[in-house]
Amino acid sequence: MSFSRRVSLQWIPEQVDPEESTSTYVITSPNDEFVDIRIYSTKYPYTKEKQEAFDKVFQWGITGVEEPIEGTSRVNFKHEVSTTEVIESIRTGKLLEECRGEPDVGDFSNIEGSEDRRETGSMVNFETGRKTDYIEIWRSLDPINHTPHKEVREPKETTDIPKVLVMEVNQVGFQGKLVRLGNWVQALVLNRSTKEIHIIRYHFDTLLKNWDRLIQYAGIDFPTDFAGNVGESAMVSNINWICKEKV
Hints:
Blueprint: E1 2-12, E2 22-28, E3 33-40, H1 54-57, E4 58-68, E5 74-82, H2 83-92, E6 104-110, E7 117-124, E8 131-140, E9 164-169, E10 174-181, E11 184-191, E12 196-205, E13 210-217, E14 233-236, E15 239-246
Antiparallel strand pairs: 1-2, 1-8, 2-3, 3-4, 4-5, 5-6, 6-7, 7-8, 9-10, 9-15, 10-11, 11-12, 12-13, 14-15
């Protein structure tokens, strides 16, 4: 399990210096279920009642499963919902299945003198539309003590066990996932009929005992406080969710 923030993205060889134009967090459960949300920094936090066009607010949103490739430092990020594919489907009129992107595989390595990690690979450059080599720098954070106002790195050793909740949409016509780790939760839901995308990112304020809504790009509610057990379900905003993991 991990709670990571992207520090920078560099396209090779176009960019001489790395930069970061988004607030990108990836929350991954102990069983490698993940939700990856990349919102433009100029739009973050986002809680507007009247929502703007998705691609004006977000660079990318993904749900899926991480699959480490045995014997290597590479990870295959198996996408279940990818907003780039949804946007392509809307633009071209093609079925979602016809807009599947190439495998998303990153090669991870340590950075000398730093606790951050380097990821290299190739993917479509969002600005040029061309497949391009990239370098991403990632920072592991403490899902319990990190807050929107104070960065706290993942401790090297800890006895604190973060809360874990993974909920998956279990209903025809909808697809999506919610992952909570510690005091942070992200979720993405796709209405496959209308191509409507719903995204949240919340932080639980332990003093006020409520969720601080950092991203509320959604016309539905989410089961952030599900009290049942693994295998049980909940109906929220007329969408059925099933619990896949809980600690």
